[in-house]
Structures are given as C-alpha cells and as structure tokens.
Amino acid sequence: MLRRVPGGRYRAGWRALELERIVRDSSPFRPVAYAVAEKLARHRGETVHVAALDAGQVVYVDRVQGSRPVDIPVSKVGATLPAHCSGVGKVLLAHLDPGEIDAVLDRRGLPAFTPTTITDRDALYAELHRVRRDGVAYDREEVVEGVRCVAAPILDADGSVCAEMSIAAPADRFASAETAYRSAVVRSARAVTERLRQQIPDS
User: Fold this and answer.
1) Which of 31, 32, 58, 110 sits at a 20 to 30 Å CA gap from 198?
2) Is the sign of the CA dihedral 69, 73, 78, 79 positive or negative?
3) Residue 203 has what pLDDT?
C-alpha cells in the first residue's frame, strides 16, 4: 500500500488503485452520477459534487468543475466533513431516522466553520424538516464563507437515499441564479435516480 521514495519518505503505493476500483465497483450509483454531474457542470459552468454518508460524516465521492469553478479546498474527492454544515450533509441527515440523527450529532457534535454554521440542535432539526418538505438543502456559506450550494437526493433502486448531488457557486453568483441552480440539480439528481431504477434486472 506504500512505496518508498528518495529521501526515505513514503507515498501511496500502486495497490491503492485496487482499493479505488473496489470502491467504484461496490458503489453502483457512482458512474451514473458522475456522467450526470459532468453534464450539469458543463451546462452551468459551476462546481458539482456527488457525496455519500459514512459513519455519520459526508464523504465527497466525486467533484466535477465547470468553466468557472469556485475554490473549495474542503471538498476534494475523498474528503470528509460533518454532515450538519453542508447542503450535501443536510440532505443525507434529513433522510435518516430520528434516532440515527441523534446518534450522529452525539458522536460528531455541531462544530462551527463560519458565523452562519448551524450549531444549535433544535435549529438543525427545523432545517432538516424543511429539507424533507422541500426536497432540497442549502448551504448558505456554512462551510466556506463566500460559497453557497443547493443539494438534492439520489435514490437507489429500493427508493432509499444512497447519495446526493449539489451545485456550488460564489455567493453573489448563486444569489442571482438560485432558482435555476435548484431546478438544475433536482433534475440531475432525478435523472441519476431514474437510471439506477432502469438497472434493476428483470426477475
């Protein structure tokens, strides 16, 4: 898993590529979601994320950057974040059972990343209720100041939320096109869901 380089230092070995293949093959939504995310990023010119939930944290599965990407150092592929502070995380939390949400918050807490991060449990519960009602979640500069996003769920063949997709942009650009971004990411997430349903083998 490691290889030695000059100077006595170590870097990831080529066997790490095998792990990447295993993860890809065991995540059937990923190639479908990536193709749709690539199209959305090309169409809107913004940064598109695909994320999943692992042990109560958001894991960024893929990131596709359009022609005018915003710099988001915390959302590189493989990076993790607490679920309460991002649009992607709120979508994933909102579709857990209440007991599961409590367990995540007990374990992870509600750390603040910016002055607008939700750090009150009751306020987060109210936000998650809105996410379930509206079908989308917003990050209004709650992870990185100056960056906003809107996220929508991706459902697997069983109708369970398996991942989500979001579109992120600088706050001023996002504000001027919020409705368009919301519609675009909802359509894209639904397109992934429909393609996953079509992959169900006939019995």
Assistant:
1) 58
2) negative
3) 46
Angle in degrees, CA 194, 134, 122, rounded to 5 = 130
- What's the confidence (pLDDT) of residue 180? 97
Angstrom distance (rounded) from CA 197 to CA 203:
14
Identify the pLDDT of residue 58: 94
- Separation between Cα atoms, residue 195 and residue 64, nearest integer Å: 19
| Low-confidence stretches of the chain (pLDDT beneath 50) | 17, 203
Which residues have C-beta within 8 Å of that of residue 193, sequence separation ≥ 6?
154, 155
Whole-number pLDDT of residue 112: 97
Q: What is the pTM of this model?
A: 0.86
Task: Count CB atoms within 10 A of the CB of residue 129.
Answer: 11
Residue type, 145: E
Contact 163, 33 (CB under 8 A): yes
Amino acid occupying residue 92: L
Q: Which residues of 164-178 are buried (b: 16+ CB within 10 A; e: fewer)?
A: bbbbbbeeeebeeee
Q: Identify the pLDDT of residue 71.
A: 85
Q: Rounded to 10 degrees, what is the CA torsion of 175, 177, 32, 93?
A: 30
